[in-house]
Design a protein that fits this description.
By secondary structure, the chain is mainly alpha-helical. It is built from seven helices and two strands.
């Protein structure tokens, strides 16, 4: 049996672009949890595009693994940059910066758990969500530029909303309720 990308032509997924607005809305509604779905979805897109096996679910789950998640974040943003560079598109996010932003977001989240001040918890949660959203938007822009370069305009569409995104938004709303209405 041929492996993906070997001896057969793959039909490109027409739904590839994830707009800034969509990332912002889903990231905010999900309290930043959208990064897990974004990681999964974009690894899946990279797998389809490169023909190499990427294990999107496992890569997304690595974001829960301390220290190792930094290497996965770096590799993910690097892979997006390499794919973009293969078509002459300049990367919109440096892998090292993505790692720094991820460290900041995780530190803000961790700090909010240890603080008793209601106002500080809200502020730290909002800041963490903003940092995570910035990371995703900036990295996704590079991937979107790549799609615009390699796909004919009539086949370039936005990725469909999936069940996973809805699940993360529901979980995020539960998180926001816990942040804004302390128990």
């Amino acid at each position: 049996a041929a492996r993906p990308g070997e001896g057969m032509t793959q039909v490109p997924d027409p739904a590839v672009r994830i707009t800034d607005g969509r990332v912002i809305i889903l990231s905010v509604l999900s309290a930043g949890l959208y990064i897990f779905f974004w990681f999964y979805l974009t690894w899946k897109q990279l797998e389809n595009e490169t023909g190499r096996k990427h294990y999107p679910v496992w890569h997304a789950l690595t974001l829960f693994v301390p220290i190792y998640n930094l290497f996965r974040m770096y590799t993910h943003v690097w892979a997006i940059g390499e794919l973009a560079a293969s078509r002459g598109v300049t990367s919109t996010m440096a892998p090292g910066l993505a790692v720094v932003l991820w460290i900041v977001a995780v530190a803000l989240d961790s700090s909010s758990i240890r603080i008793d001040s209601y106002g500080a918890v809200i502020l730290l949660s909002l800041l963490s969500t903003a940092v995570t959203t910035t990371l995703i938007v900036t990295a996704q822009r590079g991937l979107n530029l790549y799609w615009e370069k390699v796909r004919p305009p009539d086949t370039l569409t936005d990725a469909r909303t999936g069940v996973g995104e809805v699940v993360f938004v529901v979980l995020g709303i539960i998180v926001w309720i816990g942040v804004f209405i302390p128990f």
